[in-house]
Design goal:
The protein has about 190 residues and is mainly alpha-helical. It contains seven helices and six strands. The longest helix has about 40 residues, at about 30-70. InterPro entries: DUF2854 (IPR021275). Keywords: Membrane, Transmembrane, Transmembrane helix.
């Protein structure tokens, strides 16, 4: 016979009482003994599945490594382009040199006192511009290309792909400021819509 047991929480809420039985909670001993080999079989099957999956992954990795090593050596991107030169790294030392030489010539520590004013006038804005370009520049992305892709680049690259490649492999300046401004406008627009 099943005895009715009620907890305090059930008494106050009007829930049905729990029913207990004389059967053991975990099943009969015969049932437990029959379940042990089945559980071992399940564990062995899971282990076999796991080792098979690991072998497949290892074979795929070795196949990819063989494909990449067989004629797919990386070619350095050595082509010269004026856009790959950082103007900030050129203008900063030139401006600082003109500024320093202009001060030295002005105080007659260096020769060229008659040109000191021109060096000071042009040295200051050039150095400030060089510092500004160095501060706001984004480094170019290192382009890793295989020999096969390099051969196909000229024949199969679209205009958009060419423009994207040129944009990411050159020094860019002021992009962070533009992104912050656009992001601010987008979030203000979302706040107004909500």
């Amino acid at each position: 016979m099943a005895a009715r047991v009620m907890t305090r929480a059930q008494m106050g809420t009007g829930m049905r009482p729990l029913q207990s039985s004389s059967r053991p909670v975990f099943g009969s001993p015969a049932r437990l003994a029959a379940g042990v080999p089945a559980q071992r079989l399940r564990l062995a099957a899971a282990e076999q599945q796991r080792s098979h999956t690991q072998q497949q992954q290892q074979q795929q990795r070795s196949l990819v490594a063989m494909r990449s090593s067989a004629g797919s050596e990386l070619v350095p991107d050595d082509e010269f382009a004026i856009s790959k030169i950082s103007f900030g790294s050129i203008l900063t030392p030139v401006g600082c040199f003109l500024l320093a030489y202009g001060f030295g010539a002005y105080f007659m520590l260096l020769p060229g006192a008659d040109l000191s004013s021109i060096m000071l006038i042009y040295g200051f804005p050039i150095s400030v511009l060089g510092f500004a370009l160095s501060y706001a520049q984004l480094e170019p992305v290192k382009c890793k290309t295989t020999r096969g892709a390099l051969e196909l680049r000229d024949t199969q690259m679209t205009d958009i792909q060419k423009q994207i490649r040129e944009d990411v492999t050159r020094y860019r300046g002021g992009q962070e400021v533009v992104f912050k401004e656009v992001r601010g406008r987008l979030y203000r627009g979302r706040a107004r819509a909500a």
